[in-house]
């Protein structure tokens, strides 16, 4: 699989992706915000967009659908309970989406919104590394917010049951570039985290278009939402929440609450 990532230079800091089969040159436009830009990118690389997939229904993840559709005729797919204009197909948890040699499994990951899906491309004979397209569920150094129709208990469940078990080598492709800010939050929660400091320095001067691709193994080293057992994280939370238990769910929810106001 070839992945083309474009930073959209908008205030919400979206990433748009084209996922392409290197053999058939067919592509999926994932969460297009600027549809014309995605169509131009596909043309520039000799790719044919055959499918539009939206991880969820928020406007900044679907706004480019009409322009991509007008130029390519590609249908819009999203979770079966999503209500997205012109949606042609409802994705169910566990569905396999195949295009050329690409095989992606849909993970239903409610939390940011009830209908959110992540796409997982396991390692295969065509692609040595697993890839996770995480939309607004898992970000570099953070979890997505639950403020716009979401539910933090669902987010916790999605993390624990579906994302945390994925292999360390999985490459992470989030829906937004929030890494620098999120690393600041990670260090606020865990000031002694050497990997968070290291990556904060590494990306301090990096333009958004060149932000590094991280693996889940790396994320586990600094993302507080993947470090729920860490004594420093729990001790820090207890300064604000003296009665906090060390229960994973309670730690996750307290982190999310602080991040909402950070
Ligand atoms: Zn969203």
From TrEMBL:
Cofactor list: Zn(2+)
InterPro entries, per database record: Clx_II_MBL (IPR035680), Glyoxalase_II_hydrolase (IPR050110), HAGH_C (IPR032282), Metallo-B-lactamas (IPR001279), RibonucZ/Hydroxyglut_hydro (IPR036866)
Against CDD domains, the record matches this protein to: hydroxyacylglutathione_hydrolase_MBL-fold (cd07723)
Protein EC: 3.1.2.6
State the pathway, as annotated in the record: Secondary metabolite metabolism; methylglyoxal degradation; (R)-lactate from methylglyoxal: step 2/2
At the top level, the lineage of the source is Bacteria
Enzyme class, top EC level, equals: hydrolase
Asked if Chloroplast is a keyword of the record, the answer is no
Name the UniProt key words of this record, in alphabetical order. Hydrolase, Metal-binding, Zinc
Which stretches make up the Metallo-beta-lactamase domain?
Answer: 13-176
Please tell me whether the keyword Hydrolase is annotated for this protein.
Answer: yes
Annotated GO MF terms: hydroxyacylglutathione hydrolase activity; metal ion binding
Similarity-based family:
Belongs to the metallo-beta-lactamase superfamily. Glyoxalase II family.
The identity of this protein, by name, is hydroxyacylglutathione hydrolase
What organism is recorded for this protein? Bacterioplanes sanyensis
């Amino acid at each position: 699989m070839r992945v083309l990532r474009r930073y959209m230079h908008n205030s919400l800091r979206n990433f748009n992706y084209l996922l392409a089969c290197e053999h058939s040159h067919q592509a999926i436009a994932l969460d297009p915000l600027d549809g014309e830009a995605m169509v131009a990118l596909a043309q520039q690389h000799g790719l044919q967009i055959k499918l539009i997939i939206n991880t969820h229904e928020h406007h900044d993840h679907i706004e480019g659908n009409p322009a991509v559709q007008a130029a390519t005729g590609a249908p819009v797919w999203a979770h079966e309970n999503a209500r997205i204009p012109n949606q042609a197909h409802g994705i169910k948890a566990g569905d396999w989406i195949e295009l050329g040699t690409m095989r992606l499994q849909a993970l239903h990951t409610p939390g940011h919104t009830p209908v959110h899906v992540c796409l997982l491309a396991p390692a295969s004979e065509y692609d040595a590394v697993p890839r996770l397209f995480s939309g607004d569920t898992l970000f570099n150094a953070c979890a997505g917010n639950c403020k716009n129709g979401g539910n933090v208990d669902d987010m916790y469940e999605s993390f624990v049951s579906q994302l945390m078990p994925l292999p360390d080598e999985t490459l992470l492709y989030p829906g937004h570039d929030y890494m620098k800010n999120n690393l600041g939050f990670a260090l606020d929660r865990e000031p002694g985290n050497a990997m968070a400091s290291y990556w904060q320095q590494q990306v301090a001067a990096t333009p958004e278009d060149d932000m590094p691709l991280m693996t889940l193994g790396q994320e586990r080293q600094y993302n507080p939402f993947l470090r729920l057992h860490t004594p420093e994280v729990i001790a820090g939370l207890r300064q604000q929440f003296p009665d906090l238990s060390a229960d994973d769910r309670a730690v996750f929810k307290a982190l999310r609450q602080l991040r909402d106001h950070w």
